[in-house]
């Protein structure tokens, strides 16, 4: 090979190595850097939800896992979220099964207090299964009890009045016995003011209802926050 040809080939390979190969290497390195930046950003985004993922009810954690296991761009992180989602799905199914068992037990028992406890626990599990954050305000709920069937229509009017005030009233239950005086029972002292306000609303339709604190349930897991019970006497 002549010197002139050799110089031409050297010039070509210098161009090839300096332009094409280095361009490919730069592209690969740039892609790796971008991929790493994406992973870091996704880790930062996940970290913002870490406290919620650890503390919230199973329904919220399940929705969170489903979201990140779908939209996460990093394959490694996405696989971890998918694994976490499978764990949460198992917990969700166990909680749902427990709720259904308690609902069945509540439908079979004739013991009013036992049924109230069971339904209170069902309400807690229902909240746990909800995809909505439990940190959101819990709506007040009033359970109405009557001792005579003749009281039902008037008690239903009371329930309707409460519902217009954004109070949840599941229904009116007929029980075997009630207090001498109509009362709205509350179970946490911090809810006294709200209980007195609800009792005042009820008194407009059913005179004589007063709020009464029932001790022993401040830290009970069987009674949800803002749980109230209206026990109507035989005669208002």
Written overview of the protein:
The longest helix is centred in the N-terminal third of the chain and has 46 residues, at 3-48. Helix content is 60%, strand content 9%. It has a domain at 140-236: 2-Layer Sandwich (Alpha-Beta Plaits), CATH 3.30.70. It is of the alpha/beta class and 236 residues long. Strands 2-1-5-3-4 form a 5-stranded mixed beta sheet. Strand 3, helix 7 (192-203) and strand 4 form a beta-alpha-beta unit.
Mean pLDDT: 78
Q: What is the class of the domain at 140-236 in the CATH system?
A: Alpha Beta
- Biggest β-sheet: strands ordered side by side in the sheet: 2-1-5-3-4
Number of strands: 5
Helix proportion: 55-70%
Q: What is the strand content?
A: 5-15%
Distance between the termini: 118 Å
Structural class: alpha/beta
Backbone CA Rg:
32 Å
């Amino acid at each position: 090979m002549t010197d002139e040809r050799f110089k031409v080939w050297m010039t070509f390979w210098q161009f090839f190595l300096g332009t094409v190969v280095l361009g490919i290497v730069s592209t690969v390195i740039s892609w790796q850097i971008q991929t790493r930046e994406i992973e870091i950003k996704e880790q930062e985004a996940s970290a913002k939800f870490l406290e919620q993922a650890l503390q919230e009810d199973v329904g919220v954690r399940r929705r969170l896992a489903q979201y990140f296991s779908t939209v996460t761009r990093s394959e490694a992180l996405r696989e971890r979220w998918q694994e976490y989602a499978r764990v949460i799905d198992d917990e969700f199914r166990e909680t749902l099964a427990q709720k259904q068992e308690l609902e069945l037990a509540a439908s079979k028992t004739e013991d009013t207090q036992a049924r109230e406890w069971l339904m209170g626990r069902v309400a807690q599990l229902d909240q746990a299964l909800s995809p909505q954050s439990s940190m959101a305000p819990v709506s007040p709920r009033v359970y109405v009890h009557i001792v005579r069937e003749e009281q039902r229509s008037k008690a239903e009017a009371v329930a309707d009045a409460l519902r217009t005030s954004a109070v949840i009233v599941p229904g009116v239950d007929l029980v075997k016995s009630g207090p001498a005086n109509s009362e709205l029972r509350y179970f946490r002292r911090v809810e006294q003011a709200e209980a007195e306000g609800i009792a005042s609303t009820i008194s407009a339709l059913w005179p004589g209802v007063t709020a009464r604190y029932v001790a022993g349930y401040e830290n009970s897991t069987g009674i949800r926050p803002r749980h109230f019970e209206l026990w109507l006497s035989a005669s208002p």
